[in-house]
Write a structure and sequence with these properties.
328 residues, alpha+beta, six-stranded antiparallel β-sheet, 38% helix, globular, disordered C terminus
C-alpha cells in the first residue's frame, strides 16, 4: 500500500486464526479483495509464494553471515560455525537489505521464464493495459483505521470527565463533552506502537484521543505497557496489596531505573520495528513523480492521460498529494 497504493485482487492465506478474524475480512471486503483459504497440508496451493521465499533464501538470506543452515545437521556443527556467535544483523538493517534485494536486485535481473526482468515485464504490462488510476487506494486515515486493532470487547464506555479506558489508561477527546455521548459505548481502536494515542468512533467519524500522562506514555508500545502491568501485578501479589493498577503507577514505573532494566529488551524490539516500518517510504520506490497540472483543454487531458499510462503504477499514485505517505 505505501509503495504502490494498491491491494491484490486475490489473497491466498493458510488456516491461521489471524486470517479468520472479522476485521481482516472486513478490510478485504471494503477494498473488494477475494480471500482464498489454502487447505491444510496442501503446500502446492501456495507454490508461487513458496517459490519466491525459496529464491530469496538461496540467493540472499543463506549468503548472509549468521544464517542457520549449519543447524540443519547439528552433529556436524562446531563452536566455530555456530550461528549464534556470528549473528550481526539487526531487524532494521535486515529489512532494509531485503527491500533492496526485492526491488533493486531481483526486480531488475533477467528471469529465465520471462526472458526479461520482472520490472520490464511490469512496465510493458502497464503500457499495454494502462495504469487504472481508479483502482488506486490512498494511504490515508481511513485505511489506517481499518488496519488498527481493537480490544476484546470492541467498544468502550465514555465516562463523564474521564473518557474511554483502554489498557489501564483513560483517553480523552473534546468530542466526549457532548451529553449525548457520555455513558454510551463507542467503537474503539488503538495504536499498537504508541500507547499514548487511541481512536473512538463518535458522530460517524473517528476521533483521535490522547491518554492521561501523555508525555510519559507516548512512544511506548502496547507490549511494553502490558509487561509493566504484569510486573506491578506480581509485586502486588507478593506484598498482598489491594491497590489496583492505575495510569499514575504505570507512568511512575515506566520512568524508573528498574523499568529500564526489565523493559529494555522490549524497547529495543519496538524501536527496531518502528525503524523497519519507517524505512518503507515513497523515495525507495522506483517511480516517476508526475506534477499535478490543471488541464485547460480536452486535447491536453488526453495527452496527459496517455503519458501517465506508460509510467509505473506508483507514478499515478504520487501524482496527487492525497496519496503521499502522511507523517505521524
Amino acid at each position: 500500500m505505501r509503495r504502490f497504493g494498491r491491494l491484490p485482487q486475490t489473497l491466498v492465506v493458510d488456516g491461521g486464526r489471524e486470517f479468520q478474524s472479522t476485521y481482516f475480512e472486513t478490510l478485504l471486503a471494503v477494498y473488494e479483495c477475494v480471500k482464498k483459504t489454502r487447505p491444510p497440508a496442501k503446500a502446492r496451493f501456495g507454490s508461487v509464494c513458496e517459490r519466491l521465499f525459496g529464491t530469496a533464501n538461496t540467493q540472499f538470506v543463506h549468503n548472509l553471515q549468521g544464517n542457520t543452515q549449519s543447524t540443519r545437521q547439528v552433529r556436524q556443527m562446531t563452536a566455530a560455525v555456530n550461528p549464534r556467535t556470528h549473528a550481526i544483523w539487526t531487524l532494521e538493517a535486515l529489512a532494509q537489505r531485503v527491500r533492496e534485494f526485492a526491488y533493486e536486485v531481483y526486480d531488475t535481473a533477467p528471469h529465465t521464464a520471462l526472458g526479461l526482468s520482472p520490472r520490464e515485464v511490469f512496465t510493458q504490462g502497464m503500457a499495454t493495459s494502462g495504469a487504472r488510476t481508479h483502482r488506486l487506494i490512498p494511504y490515508d486515515e481511513h485505511f489506517r483505521m481499518l488496519t488498527l486493532p481493537t480490544t476484546y470487547k470492541e467498544t468502550a464506555t465514555v465516562s463523564p470527565g474521564k473518557g474511554i479506558r483502554l489498557h489501564y489508561l483513560y483517553y480523552w477527546a473534546d468530542a466526549f463533552r457532548d451529553p449525548f455521548v457520555e455513558r454510551t459505548r463507542v467503537p474503539v481502536r488503538y495504536e499498537p506502537h504508541d500507547v499514548g494515542i487511541a481512536y473512538a468512533f463518535v458522530h460517524h467519524h473517528w476521533v483521535r484521543c490522547t491518554s492521561e500522562h501523555y508525555r510519559i506514555f507516548r512512544g511506548h508500545s502496547t507490549e511494553e505497557v502490558q509487561l509493566a502491568a504484569a510486573e506491578l501485578q506480581q509485586r502486588r501479589r507478593k506484598l498482598a496489596q489491594e491497590s489496583a493498577i492505575t495510569a499514575r503507577r504505570l507512568a511512575t514505573f515506566l520512568t524508573s531505573v528498574e523499568a529500564e532494566e526489565r523493559l529494555l529488551a522490549q524497547r529495543l524490539r519496538d524501536a527496531a520495528v518502528k525503524q523497519s516500518l519507517e524505512g518503507i517510504t515513497w523515495e525507495e520506490a522506483d517511480v516517476v513523480r508526475v506534477p499535478r497540472t490543471p488541464c485547460t483543454s480536452p486535447d491536453q487531458a488526453v495527452a496527459l492521460a496517455s503519458a501517465t499510462a506508460e509510467l509505473p503504477v506508483a507514478a499515478s499514485a504520487v501524482s496527487d498529494e492525497r496519496y503521499l505517505l502522511p507523517e505521524y
